[in-house]
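Late entry, evening session. Most of the bench is empty. Finally got around to the prediction I had been postponing all week. Sequence below, unchanged from the version circulated by S.P.
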Amino acid sequence: MSDEARELTRTTIYRRLRADILSCVLRPGSQIQERQLCEHFSVSKSPIRDALLKLEEQNLIEILPRKGYRVKPISLADARELYEMRLILERECVGRLVDVAPDETLRSLDVYRVAPGAHVELADWIEYNRSFHGALADGSGNTRLARTTREVIEQFDRFTYTSVAQSGPQGRERFGAEHVLLIDAIQKRDKRQALAVARDHVEASRRRVLDSLENPTIVP
């Protein structure tokens, strides 16, 4: 197998496992065995371990000594803490974006005005959502702030899945409309309005997710 083919295999396995975790096909708290994954994907342990280590870095799985791996459980305490961090970091990014970002950067946000339609896979919608909030972080002009904010945002994929899956197609339209409101305020350099919209957007997401996490069929 060529180096290119090996890299493609690693990437495919990682994406498949990540999608299964985000969509709760691999349920929170469920154990994962390397041997079973090797048999499932018909590959050696090397690409499986690479994918699992990458997923561990993203806080989606955890290593169980002498037992294998486990999909990281979703806890209400983790969700609350992450939302507190996200609210602090994202509002700071939005404020700096309004204050210091060049007009070209603000105009570049227009690509997020049209969210993926209800017909697309949830994983694609989640990728769009992550990309949008990552762009807000990158526009802050502070590389350390942007990196820290992105790290927090990436941990929200399962929360986003839970929220979007519960709300259905109409919910996706509403989330997309909230993004547009935020883009409008940022491009007008209306800092007060932009911070208010960012706060309301995060708070609405927090309420939806915490309500969803009360469901024992999602969180063991």
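Two things to note before I forget:
The chain has two domains: 3-71, 76-213.
Residues 216-220 have pLDDT under 50 and may be disordered.
Will write this up properly tomorrow.
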